[in-house]
């Protein structure tokens, strides 16, 4: 029964994302558009790691796209459910509330994967194939799984803020964090104080973990940072849920 309920709730979550054009634009279309734009301009340029801009940007802009989807959509969705009173209905219904919340998270995964597929298609159309299929699969796995803690943080905000406030808060956190992690502009071109901040940001470690799948660079430290972020995200989401007001 729980599997059927989870499938039904996930399907509703997928449709709910489509019904929210603003979140869909900022979390899905904008990252793909940015990647296509900058790859058209700089796609063939060689980076310090010897790879083309198009290849390295699959990791950095891919991280941006996945974090946008995972941070915004579950959080705003939960906030809307709470604002409309729908979350209260779910809490007293026969459906376990954990199943409903898990469905919100699972519903974001196809969109995160869709962002990466769209970026890859844009890369192939603009510059040709830049990484082999096995490397691409490793990159996708690192980004999609590494995006889960951001969904937990997004849901934590959704538990305590209205839908409008949640969208504002999450965007206010997302864009400075993405910029300071070097996901839009290489960190080497950023001011020194931003380069010093970057290693303390989870988006930086997710991007570096993804980049390591392409370059073969050591990734253990970045993996541990992502795992620590997941634990912290679960704790924050748990505390926010315990203080939930519906």
- The helical percent reads over 70%
SSE order, one letter for each helix or strand: HHHHHHHHHHH
Report the C-alpha radius of gyration, rounded: 18 Å
The number of E-state strands comes to 0
Main structural class: mainly alpha
Q: Report the biggest beta sheet as strand number plus sense, adding barrel if it closes.
A: none
**Oligomer designation:** single chain
* Net shape: globular
Q: pLDDT under 50 segments (min length 5)?
A: none
Describe this structure in words.
It is built from 11 helices and no strands. With 246 residues, the protein is an all-alpha fold. The chain is globular, with a radius of gyration of 18 Å. The mean pLDDT is 88.
Name the descriptors.
single chain, 246 residues, 11 helices
Task: Give a nutshell description of this structure.
The protein has 246 residues and is mostly helical. The protein has helices at residues 2-18, 21-42, 53-83, 86-92, 97-127, 133-146, 148-160, 163-180, 192-197, 202-215, 220-242.
Task: Tell me the layout of helices and strands.
Blueprint: H1 2-18, H2 21-42, H3 53-83, H4 86-92, H5 97-127, H6 133-146, H7 148-160, H8 163-180, H9 192-197, H10 202-215, H11 220-242
Helix pairs in contact: 1-5, 2-3, 2-5, 3-5, 3-7, 3-8, 3-10, 6-10, 7-8, 7-11, 10-11
